[in-house]
Amino acid sequence: MRDLSKHIIFILATLVLLLLGNSVTYGSTLKVCKTCTYTSVKQAVAKAKPGDTVLIEGGEYKEHGIEVNKPITILGRNYPVIDGNYKGQIITITSDNVTVEGLTLKNIGTSYTRDDAAIRVIERSNIRILNNTILNTYFGIYLQNSDNCVIKGNVVTGQDVKGLNESALGNAIHLWYCDNAVISNNKLQGHRDGIYLEFVKDSEVKNNLSENNLRYGLHFMFSDRNVYTHNTFRMNGAGVAVMYTRDIRMEHNTFENNWGAAAYGLLLKDISSSIIHNNTFRQNTTGIYMESSSRLDIKHNEFDKNGWAVRLLSSCIQDTFRLNNFTSNSFDVSTNGTPTMNHFENNYWDKYSGYDLDKDKVGDVPYRPVSLYSMLVEKVPPSIMFMRSFMVDMMDNIEKVLPSFIPENLVDEQPMMRKNNYDNDRKLTKVVR
User: Full-prediction pTM beyond 0.90?
Assistant: First the structure.
């Protein structure tokens, strides 16, 4: 028995020594600076072992083509700058479990064949790209076939988009065939699209600011079961586009100041079975443009000072608009035909002139939000020049008395007399930042 006890003690002591040995040799820090052993980021990354940290001190490093093929952390201290000098991609990640944090990466040249980026991830998982500043790039952060990645707290600034065409710009954050991603708290501008997602599922986009991009603040297609909350999309060429997608939740976002002949706060094309709640659409050419979209629950949204609040094409079916506020829009709702299978209920319309005899805060007379003039503009766009003329007012008033052209079934049977107040609902559902 005594010999057995000695044997067990020997085994335990050996295990302790092995663990202590690992703690000494595993997870080292390789420092990069002008006077350090490693003066090049590429050199330190090449020498690093799995689990190591490459710590880059403040200064400027003119480097590109840094390949990260092992699970390490690249950490910046005192704001180091890696200047790609327009010679190609700066960091390419080909390993799982990599973190890149606290760097300034700049100067990626336009490439029409390689889609060069400041940081590119190729078929990897568990990548964390945190709190970096990315300046003057073609693509900022580019992930392909990569799952369970976090892109958080980055500032990605491209170029002044005035006078440029789409081919001259990449996207600030670009994901292709990626699942379970979290994109949060980023500031994005000066690219083709702020965020571009294609074949991305079960992911979350939250608390981002995407502005002054040439095309869309957010653009995604074939990307099901995603959640978009507390983002701001403003002053983009065409707003936000959601295409060929289902089971989406878009809540507490702000779409504002997206102006132009083909600009929208939110473009919905072939989207189904989704929720659009508690968003603000303010000062857009069109708040929401809907085509071939079905089974959408559009609730508790603010439509304020838009040209068109909602353009609901006749190809849309089984969509529900309830408890929304429509204020100071040139047109509240317009359509190009006679959609009959959509439902409006308990919305507030500032143009409603009905009455409430029983004082239940619900109008006693139904409201038809589509005006004859809006239908005329839909069919003959140049007629917009007659807006606010006496002739238009007379035309709409006659149609209200003797309706014959506007869709008979596009009506809010119970319009609200006062604006819907849903601040309490917003507080209950607010995402914790």
Answer: no
